[in-house]
Amino acid sequence: MGTKLIIDTDPGVDDAFAIALAAMSADVDLLGVTTVFGNVPLAMTTANARRLLQLCDRPDVPVAAGAARRLVYGGERNGNVHGADGLSGRAGSLPEATRPLESQDAVSLLVSLLEASDEPVTIAPIGPLTNIAALLAAHPGVRDKIARIVLMGGGVARGNITAAAEFNIWADPEAARRVIAEDEVPCVMVPLDLTHRCAVDGAWLAKLAASGPLGQTLESFTPDYLAYYRRVLGYDGIVMHDAVAVAEAISPGILQTETYAVNVDTTDGPARGMTLVDRRIALDDPEAAPGRRIEVATDTDLDGLREFVLSRLTGSR
């Protein structure tokens, strides 16, 4: 078996693509899935994750529910891009999960899976970073069991939920700052700037839908998402943000990265949740460019990435 992987998620249409990508990849040992509030409230994200795994015929994968709100204070709003149930109103079309929800919470499941692993595990957080921040704060001893954190979030030059901030980071900036800027675990940030360039068009979605029941179901989740991204992209297509990050988690190096000092704005002003990516030339001077260095995904073979995701979702690889 290849990459040992845990996904932390808030499904979400693009989360559904990402979960299926991991679940259907023969070279991935998907140890578990943990859920967090985000695109929709926690009860919905948890139900969606469990039923998506059932759709992929993966009842072997445990699911545990995590944080229902951000670390510091409430008042967050859920995204509306994904429809009221997170899957364009189609969550009810998924099969009921046969495996019960784990009785332990998300952080407890993360700890047990990490401690039981005989080799370091990649964690792919593709929602708000609340569970991961709690894990690192309460269980620092598991750091050595984490190969790296590959997260979807942030932006170098843009936001989406606000002018400055990407949704996953904005949903819990304090948690994001802990994971991105203040911890020691190797981290790869996959930002909006790249995920938007990896958008897939109607022809790609048609191939997915024609591939069989799984592809047809995944494509059926996209109407609300398509309506939104038609305005953003100017054509019929979607941005599969989270699947881009999970592709890197599965296949290290499929995304090109550069090392930057990154911080997260946790103030109450208009830049709250912004990822500040320090691209100054003096990066090697810690006084001129202070802060922890992480990898930021900046480029990829766009057609190759799209084919990588499609081939695994359709079972052609």
From TrEMBL:
InterPro entries per the UniProt record, alphabetical: Inosine/uridine_hydrolase_dom, IUNH, Ribo_hydro-like
Domain Inosine/uridine-preferring nucleoside hydrolase positions: 5-305
Any Gene Ontology biological process: purine nucleoside catabolic process
Keyword Transmembrane in record: no
Listed GO CC annotations: cytosol
Keywords: Glycosidase, Hydrolase
Molecular function as annotated in GO: purine nucleosidase activity
Name of the protein in question: Pyrimidine-specific ribonucleoside hydrolase
Organism: Amycolatopsis saalfeldensis
